[in-house]
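tool=predict chain=A
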Amino acid sequence: MREPQRAVYDRVEIYKILDEGFVCHVGFAADSQTYVIPTMFARIGDAIYFHGSAASRMLRNLSAGLSVCITVTLADGLVLARSVFNHSMNYRSVVALGTAQLVDAPAEILEAVRASTEKILPGRWNDARQPNEKELKATTVLKLPLTEVSAKVRIGPVEDDADDYALPVWAGIVPLRLVADTPIRDDRCDASLPVPGYATNFRR
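tool=predict ok
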């Protein structure tokens, strides 16, 4: 494995990455075709939950027992070296492998939807209308137990070849972070309703 020193197996660190990420990519093969689908997700305990329409081809295929690979990546900085070959990125990523399980217990389905909502912005679940029975019946929820999971992390400064440090080329890190802009009110939202604090004070 290239750069084996970047591997991380500590569960606490892995869960931090998963909890910070908004989007996972779900990879699977069906009918001789490989798919990688971006989707929202949430971690509850030792499992990743993701959901969507009951008509979703991805969810139908995965609920039938196909092997799945789920990845989450956070970009933390652009690493600009003196040589093009040594340019890199500071990042944190997680790869989870296994077989996704269909969730059919109503309480667990509701908890998965709640967790996904709260992951977007904590506090939103109690403010918005919660799903009704019809909506939940039209939703498929899958979970992937985090049995086979690992992370890969690159942190730190530029790493150039010894001879390149004398080159008159700017080198350093361009830090990256996710920030929210000013909330934009929906056209049909009552103008007297204040913007929730969790929308104006987004932090990641």
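The chain has a mean pLDDT of 94. DSSP finds six helices and eleven strands in the chain.
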